[in-house]
Amino acid sequence: MPRTSSYYLALLATIIVAAIPRLADCQTSAMSGDVPAAGVSVPSSERTKKDNQLRELTQAIERRLGKGARYVNYLTPESSLVNYVDMYKKEIEKIGTAKFPKVDGKSVYGSVTVCLTIDSMGRVEQADPIEGEKNSLLAYSRKLLAGLPKMPFPSTFPKGTRRIAFVTTFNYAQR
User: Fold this and answer.
1) Phi, psi of 136, deg, nearest 5
2) Could you give the angle at the alpha carbon of 95 between the alpha carbons of 107 and 135, nearest 5°?
3) Measured between alpha carbons, how far is 21 from 4 in angstroms, rounded to an integer?
4) Are the C-beta atoms of 95 and 145 separated by less than 8 Å?
5) Domain enclosing residue 94, as ranges
6) Sheet holding 110-119, edge to edge
7) Secondary structure of the chain as H, E, C letters
8) What contacts 12, CB < 8 A, 6 or more positions away?
């Protein structure tokens, strides 16, 4: 499958996000200056520099996605966008847990990171894999996304938002 420019921009944004330890559990703006719950402390100047880099990448991704598109990450100021993405991820997790991937009758474990683009009707418009451990997990994740219920954008979304993109990881692990 050919890689799109939005794929590479999303990959770069993911790498920057991974470089800031506090982001794994963070859903609030970095501007609040909160110390992460895990007690990991990141110097303010380093955090500000990484946040600025991520803002620039976010703007570049949104330009590539086109007019009316938003790239949602932890720096997104509109809570309606962040809440929608959280709800979407929870729905993916709920369905993925109920329909665990199997190959030849055996459960398959691992993870797949995907950049999803969702249209205003709540349909998956595009799913670009960023990294994954097994092709069978990627194929399963695509089937899972195709079977998601449609979740149209709420009226609280910023005016003119026609689609959103975000990066998510499917983790298939033993519980």
Assistant:
1) -65, -35
2) 45
3) 28
4) no
5) 5-172
6) 69-71, 163-172, 110-119, 124-132
7) CCCCHHHHHHHHHHHHHHCCHHHHHCCCCHHHCCCCCCCCCCCHHHHHHHHHHHHHHHHHHHHHHCCCEEECCCCCCCHHHHHHHHHHHHHHHHHHHHCCCEECCEECCEEEEEEEEEECCCCEEEEEEEEECCHHHHHHHHHHHHCCCCCCCCCCCCCCCCEEEEEEEEEECCC
8) 57
Distance CA 91, CA 107 (A): 21
| Contact indicator for 162, 68 with CB cutoff of 8 Å | yes
Please give the tally of structural domains in the chain.
Answer: 1
Q: What is the pLDDT along the chain (175 residues), one digit of tens a residue?
A: 455 555 555 555 555 554 443 333 333 333 334 444 444 555 678 878 888 888 888 888 888 878 888 888 877 888 899 999 999 888 888 887 777 777 788 877 888 888 888 999 999 888 888 876 667 777 777 788 877 888 899 998 999 999 999 988 877 777 6
Can you give the C-alpha Rg of the chain in angstroms?
17
Q: Are 136 and 72 in contact (CB under 8 A)?
A: no
